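Posting this for the archive.
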Amino acid sequence: MIPLSLKKFKKIYIEITNRCNLACSFCLRSNRAKAFMRPENFRAILGRIKDHTDHLALHVLGEPLLHPELDEILALCQEHALKINLTTNGTLLSQRRELLLASPALRQVNISLHSFSEQDGDPALSGYLHGILSFIREAEATGLLISLRLWNLFPANTTLPSPNETILKALEDNFELPEPLADRLTPGHGITLASKVFLSQNPRFTWPHAPAPDLGDKGTCRGLKNHIAILVDGTVVPCCLDAQADIPLGNIHAQSLAEILAGSRGEAMRTGFSQRRLTESLCRRCTFRQSF
């Protein structure tokens, strides 16, 4: 077994802010205090995790493009030779375009199209799509990976075009696709729209926090195995779905990551996962772990 002091994760999620400029019905309403992570705190965190991963995802809750010092955050990632995945609702891409396209640390941008697709009939939808498609065109020369994500929020038998249908039609026209995307989309599988541009569609996600139903104690997870998350206040949690800090393992500003991982709660989770047994209430409510 690899010592925890040498544990290397596929990625570590860092929540640089839990503030957002939208209020989508499908997003968790967190009771945590809203904040932006200060660059000096972000630098300190990087110093503590530098031997534990080569990849960061700047997201748990919140809209990372809202961060007023995002330029410093990305520069620190470059300084530490870390590659970045960034998840955004896409509404601020036009304002942040130059910064994102110039960052050598940025590897992939995930755009949650369903963030705006709720707003049926809103004329701003066309402007939203124009901003995203313009960003994709400019990103083509940079080698940046673009992952477009769309949840199936609307029933198939609706009598009016849903925002999802509008989004799919705009993508078909922009990428000059020979057949309707709706005929090709399969939940859980991506479609290549162009070089380094991908689209995936999945059912609407349900956050695993109470009062979500208890689904039983049998199962396993990749949390604590290939990823962990660090919330905006430095709290370390075992996975990116623990947006309420239901399973606080420690605080990265007070302990080394190895010390946090070696704690009794994390050890009990790892042992349980190895035996396909879930020790935490949050895990018992998680539908994502049913994939494993």
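Residues 124-139 form the longest helix (16 residues). The CA atoms of residues 269 and 280 lie 7 Å apart.
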